[in-house]
Write a structure and sequence with these properties.
208 residues, alpha/beta, Rossmann fold, 2 domains, five-stranded parallel β-sheet, 5 strands, globular
């Protein structure tokens, strides 16, 4: 049987800096599996799942190049919680299957799984540890407004659809606070890398 390498769930509120932190782990040679990227892959042009999404939410979401208008879809589902649940029901099974395939191929010594909705989906039990990228909610909102072109209604809807900061902190085993410069993150990532390598060594002593 292939070894199951320790899986670290990296989560955080929207615009907290999850992508930046995961990329820093990647520079250290750690396999990173990002649920957002997987979600893009499963609705790539030509896939059956993309056709299902367009049938459910409207052909206007098909871009001229055949890809999904993710911004338009986001506006649609964050304005209506029932549509958001409908979308999640369509996507999550395919995301889970592809994630497992990627994890089986990725190897170790440990893996970072970026799971934005970890707390909302009660998925923490599937992982060996939970790493939270945390920042003040006011900073989240400011970053999100910049990213979404100043659309305050959409930004607040996106924040409101996620678990609160206290709930994420309660689920976390480790926390990286991202409220400063990007350069401040690398020492924090490096320290956790050492910690997770030790966890991996304990899980697979025969590999040492």
């Amino acid at each position: 049987m292939e070894p199951r390498y320790p899986r670290i769930a990296l989560t955080g509120g929207i615009a907290s800096g999850k992508t930046t932190v995961s990329q820093l782990f990647g520079t250290l040679g750690v396999p990173v599996i990002d649920a957002d990227q997987v979600a893009r892959d499963v609705v790539a042009p030509g896939t059956a799942l993309l056709a299902q999404v367009l049938d459910a939410f409207g052909q206007q979401l098909r871009r001229p190049d055949g890809s999904l208008d993710r911004t338009g879809l986001r506006r649609l589902v964050f304005a209506d919680s029932s549509k958001r649940r409908q979308l999640e029901a369509l996507l999550h099974p395919a995301i889970s299957v592809r994630t497992e395939r990627l994890a089986a191929r990725a190897g170790g010594p440990y893996q970072i799984h970026v799971i934005p909705l970890l707390v909302e989906t009660n998925a923490a039990w599937q992982f060996d540890r939970v790493l939270l990228v945390d920042c003040p909610e006011a900073l989240q909102l400011a970053r999100l407004l910049e990213r979404e072109g100043g659309d305050a209604q959409l930004a607040r809807a996106m924040l409101g659809a996620q678990a609160g900061r206290d709930a994420r902190l309660a689920a976390a085993d480790d926390v990286i606070v991202n409220d400063g410069a990007t350069a401040d993150l690398m020492p924090k990532v490096a320290a956790l890398h050492q910690k997770y390598q030790a966890l991996a060594a304990a899980a697979h002593p025969q590999a040492q």
